[in-house]
Design brief:
single chain, 202 residues, mainly beta, OB fold (Dihydrolipoamide Acetyltransferase, E2P), 12 strands
C-alpha cells in the first residue's frame, strides 16, 4: 500500500472510531446493503428491511475491510472487539477488527454497542493471547483495565483496507456512520464497504 492510500485509510478509520465514540443522541450506525447511489444520495436497505436515504457529506470518506485471522493477532496489537457476555461467564467475540499500528490507542475503552442486544465494543491493546477452548485475548485499556474475550473459530476477523466511491454499488454490504439532523435526515461522513468479498462485520 503506498503512503497516499495508507493516509486515506487511516484518516477514514480514525474518523469511524471517533464517530463510534461520540455516543451522541443524533448518531446512527446503519448496517445493510446498497440499494442505489445517485450523486450525493445513498439509499441503504438495513438488516431489518427498513430503507434509509442518506446524504453523503462533502468530502465523505470510505474504506473497505480485508479478511484476517486469529493467527494474525499478537501481543501488542490494538483491536476493536464487539462481544457479548457468555452464559457460563466471560465474554465471547462477535467480531474483531485489527487496527493499523498507526491507530493504536484510538477510541480506547469499553462501551455499549448495538451489533446485538447487550453487546459491548472494546478497543484495547492485546496484553496476552492464550489458547483456552480456542483463542482468547486479554485487552488492556483506560489505564490498566482488563477484559478477557474468547474468540470462537467462526468469529469474523478483519483489518481495514482501501476503497473508493466506485465500490458503493447496488447489493454491496455497508456499515455507515451517520448523524440525524434536526429535520430527521441522515448525513454520513464515513462508510465501510465490502470491496474484498468481506462484509463489514462491525
Amino acid at each position: 500500500m503506498n503512503l497516499k492510500l495508507l493516509a486515506i485509510v487511516l484518516g477514514t478509520v480514525s474518523g469511524i472510531v471517533g464517530a463510534t465514540q461520540a455516543g451522541a443522541a443524533n448518531a446512527a450506525r446503519l448496517r445493510g446493503t446498497v440499494v442505489s447511489v445517485a450523486g450525493s444520495t445513498l439509499t441503504v436497505k438495513e438488516r431489518d428491511g427498513k430503507t434509509d436515504v442518506i446524504t453523503l457529506a462533502d468530502g465523505s470518506k470510505i474504506s473497505g475491510v480485508a479478511k484476517a485471522s486469529a493467527e494474525d493477532i499478537k501481543q501488542g496489537d490494538f483491536l476493536g472487539i464487539a462481544s457479548i457476555s457468555k452464559a457460563d461467564g466471560g465474554s465471547g467475540a462477535l467480531e474483531v477488527v485489527i487496527f493499523p499500528a498507526a491507530l493504536k490507542g484510538t477510541g480506547e475503552g469499553d462501551r455499549d454497542w448495538d451489533l446485538q442486544p447487550n453487546s459491548r465494543m472494546t478497543n484495547g491493546t492485546v496484553a496476552d493471547v492464550t489458547e483456552i477452548e480456542g483463542r482468547t485475548v486479554t485487552l488492556t485499556y483506560d489505564n490498566g483495565q482488563k477484559k478477557q474475550i474468547a474468540i470462537p473459530q467462526s468469529t469474523p476477523i478483519v483489518t481495514f483496507a482501501t476503497a473508493t466511491p466506485a465500490d458503493l454499488a447496488p447489493g454491496v454490504a455497508v456499515f455507515v456512520n451517520a448523524e440525524r439532523s434536526g429535520d430527521g435526515k441522515l448525513v454520513a461522513n464515513r462508510i465501510v464497504v465490502s470491496n474484498h468479498g468481506i462484509a463489514p462485520p462491525m
